Structure formats: structure tokens, C-alpha cells
């Protein structure tokens, strides 16, 4: 997953590659919403894992895969 992000960043911001792929840098104001959603999903998953470890016989632990 990190390799995919690195390839995307190199394609977006790499010198010379912007001309080849006809891309432009993404303005900073457009990074906020995806970053917020990604952080929210990460936090929800970590809380789910904490609940599964804390209450191993609960319903959430039974539906966890």
C-alpha cells in the first residue's frame, strides 16, 4: 500500500513526469476531506480491535473476522 502511495506521489509531483502524464499538483485544500475520512476509518478500526481484545465474548468479537 505504501508503494502505491509513493508511485502516485512521484507521478503527481515528480519533475518531468507531470509533462509526460499531463498531470498537475493537487491543491492543498483538496487533501483535507480524504485525509479526514481515512483517519476516521483508521480510528474506528482501532476502537473495534480494542473492544474485541477487551471483551472477547461480546457480539462485536463474534462478528469480527
Short overview:
The protein has 4 helices and no strands.
Topology (SSEs and partners):
Blueprint: H1 2-13, H2 17-21, H3 32-54, H4 59-63
End-to-end Cα distance, whole Å, is 21 Å
Residue fraction in strands: under 5%
* Global structural class: mainly alpha
Low-confidence stretches: none
Number of helices: 4
Task: Kindly state the number of beta strands.
Answer: 0
Count of spatially separate domains: 2
Q: Quick one: overall form?
A: elongated
Sheet having the most strands: none
- The SSE string, one letter per element, is HHHH
Helix amount, in percent? Answer: 55-70%
Instruction: Give the radius of gyration.
Output: 19 Å
As an assembly, this protein is single chain
Mean pLDDT: 88
Fold and architecture overview:
- The structure is a single chain.
- This protein has helices at 2-13, 17-21, 32-54, 59-63.
- 69% of the residues lie in helices and 0% in strands.
- The model has no long low-confidence stretch (mean pLDDT 88).
- It is built from 4 helices and no strands.
- By secondary structure, it is mainly alpha-helical.
- The protein has 2 domains: 1-30, no CATH class; 31-65.
- The chain crosses the membrane at residues 24-44.
- Keywords: Membrane, Transmembrane, Transmembrane helix.
- Residues 2-51 form the Cation-transporting P-type ATPase C-terminal domain.
- This is Cation-transporting P-type ATPase C-terminal domain-containing protein.
